[in-house]
Amino acid sequence: MTGLIRDSDGVTTPTVDAWVRFGRLLASESIQPAAPAPAATALPPGVATIVSDLAYRFNSTFSRETVASYVAQSFLLLSQRARVREHLLTMTARYAADRLDALATAQGLSLRDTPEVLFVCVQNAGRSQMAGAFLRHLSGGKVHVRTAGSSPAETSHPRVEVALAEVGVELWGEFPKPLTEDVVRAADYVITMGCGDACPVFPGRRYMEWDLADPLELDDQGLRVVRDDIRRRVLGLLVELSIEPQDASR
């Protein structure tokens, strides 16, 4: 059972990972007492700098305490998976900022005039990253794109970057990110690819499932087939969004 652990008495409780990502959903109102929040984790000194930077950036939207909580949670989620820790603080800053931005959108504190699209696959290293890259490229920046994974990989896959470069599309520093409630709530469109029911369902969003093979399990030619299929689907999504695609001839 993903996100659950069973103790010696046979009682299942959410893991720390599950609490950080979907705590508000798991702690629904009932006669049972709420489970404890994740235990505090020692954080490197650089995290304090991230908190200060983001507290200043979001000073008109969130309290410093909220920012600090999101930064700590984001560091915890990424540090559990990151194989290359050299850039962990940089990734934490970007991930926390994006989650805070999503939270502001979901709570109506930040108004956008562009549609919000979230792509979710299992590892956030193949299908969802390719879909996000194509949508950013073909929309010409007219869509706000996020990607996430239900069970993210440790690092991005170089074969995906190469396959996209072959058709003139860049990943722009993407890295695997755990799926969290805030980015789902911020989305207008939630497009899943092979991650089952891992994505929580909220009213008012358009949910779509793209049935695609995992390109990382295929050879290079198979990966290209999936890449081209994703591109076609993204072009179809732009039609639904009434957005004229840019550079669609490639």
TrEMBL record:
Keywords: Arsenical resistance. GO terms for biological process: response to arsenic-containing substance. SUPFAM superfamilies: Phosphotyrosine protein phosphatases I. The keyword Nucleotide-binding does not apply. Pfam families: LMWPc, Phosphatase-like_N. Residues 115-240 form the Phosphotyrosine protein phosphatase I domain. It comes from the Bacteria. This is Arsenate reductase ArsC. The lineage of its organism: Bacteria, Bacillati, Actinomycetota, Actinomycetes, Micrococcales.
